[in-house]
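REQUEST FORM: STRUCTURE PREDICTION
Request ID: SP-0412
Submitted by: Lab K.M.
Chain count: 1
Length (residues): 304
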Amino acid sequence: MGDVAKLVDALRAAGVTVHEWAGWQGRGNEGVREIQIEGAILHHTATPYGSAFAGLVSSTRPDMRGAMLCNFAGNSDGSLTVIGSGLAWHAGGGYGPNQGPLAPYASRRNYYTVGLEIVYPGTSPMTDAQYQTTLIFSKVVADTFCGGDLEYVRGHLEVNGKGYEGKWDPGKGPGVSYDMNLLRSQARSVVTNPIEEVEPMFAVVNLPATPEDVVYEQVIGLPDVAGATGFSARYVHLHVGNKDSRVVVAHWQLNNGGIAQMVPDGSLIKAKGRTPGVLAPADAHSLIVDYTAPLGLSVVIEAK
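STATUS: Completed
RESULT:
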């Protein structure tokens, strides 16, 4: 998984809504499909309040025509839109008055920093929702890639600021910037939920053999998704032994009392065969199976 994709997952885990601009995975300038995130740079778009727009994906500026200008856009409602996972032209090439720990990357900063373009004028402040998301974005970048050090998150004014390229973003008034030290301090107090790796669960439930032409019924409980388990998907296979077997019914039982078909009724599974792995509905709590299997039937469950 690339760094930007990892960041998308971490932002969502922290409660941020992240929209996806079509084709974002692998999009980048000069064919650079992924960046290595060592920090972040915050910008304003100097446009009206709003959401991600095509000019961020493919610039109309004469000096950057067709180039991607950021990795994320910060929308007025507090959501984000991921634009591209690769190289974006956002950081500039100057050396700025307050680069902090990003100073070693000054000449190739676009390759090592993720760019957030917040969609607002810069001559007036961000919306409250945008500002809160900016704090969360900064904290998540720091926690995920920078050992928790918020100093790796800089404003454009710090790395290409006044006296260099005239930048004051992120701005809150004409030529007036947000206090980045205060922003970083506020970001430190943000509580996020770091992603925890969940070990897949693999279980086999062996159902008893049946006499020839006799149908048995079994109900198999499924592991929960989300919640304390951390699982987001359950896949189920049905396996048989050395004799052909028939699945008369295999239906998911749903939380609302309804059912959904797993495999077609009356499905024949040839000796030593199995069904394809089938994704259980998110609201399924169990699987009911009516079957005839002279050598028994195995239900294999993988939860991820």
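NOTES: The chain has a mean pLDDT of 90.
Reviewed by: T.R.
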